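Data availability (excerpt). The following record was deposited with the supplementary files.
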Amino acid sequence: MPDKLASEASSQLSTIRDFLRWALSEFRAAKLVHGHGTTSATDEAAFLILEALHLPVDDINPWLDARLLEPERQRLAQLIRARIDTRMPAAYLVKRAYIHGIPFYVDERVIVPRSFIGELMFSGIFGGEDAPLIEDVSNVTSVLDLCTGSGCLAILAAGLFPDAEVDAADLSADALEVARINVDEHDLADRVNLLHGDLFDAVEGRTYDLIISNPPYVAGGEVAAFPAEYGHEPVMAHLGGEDGLDLVRRILAAAADHLNPGGGLLCEIGTGRERLVDDYPQLDFLWLDTEESEGEVFWITREQLLEAEL
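Predicted structure:
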């Protein structure tokens, strides 16, 4: 029984090293699927242990030989067993996820934040020295985060563009409740506006210097075949139609009407690059890579969209 296994572990294991080893063995034996902020059993076990103990999550090595109190051992054992028995991603179990070291509250009302856009925002594409998409971040005074989910990208944008007001829109009222928690935790209620609606319906008549979007982009067949871990996330946050690009097409069709002159759209689409290029041969997408992705995020300007006459 899971409770018995957790009890035995909490009584026999004593250090963080012990729990890391046990968690890794159990995770591998259970053939867990990873990808919700971590990409391996080792990384997820380390994250779960560190976050549960309220320790910095960037490096477990300084703490490996730390001996744990009985309540700490019990909590870790229960969380490790829960990760296996429920197949729930670790981020949901501890209600926390990170982007570039910045913490966000998460629960099952939103997908676990892991957008490549978050990485790109800190890569110098905005305000960097090497041919940035936007040279001067102080020139950006309005940003829209479309399909905001937990609000993480909107919050990152507020930090990156200090003079900008940020609108964060989502069709899911549940997701906006989570976004409100994060906006309040980051003390940004005066700069990040949460709006309810279907894509641009939420911001009718408004225009922006920058639009960022990580919309649902998974094909229907792929969603149906999701492993259990991904099944804990809201289906509407993943499902992008038969080929995954329904919402992306709608965004492209209307984005120019909501961009100021000189503005642009940064959008994540997953693995649909080839289909999108075939559908829009008249668009000159700029594809941006990250350490873990290639051609899954594009940039396109208002002027390029207008010239294509979509």
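Summary of structural features: The two ends are 59 Å apart (CA to CA).
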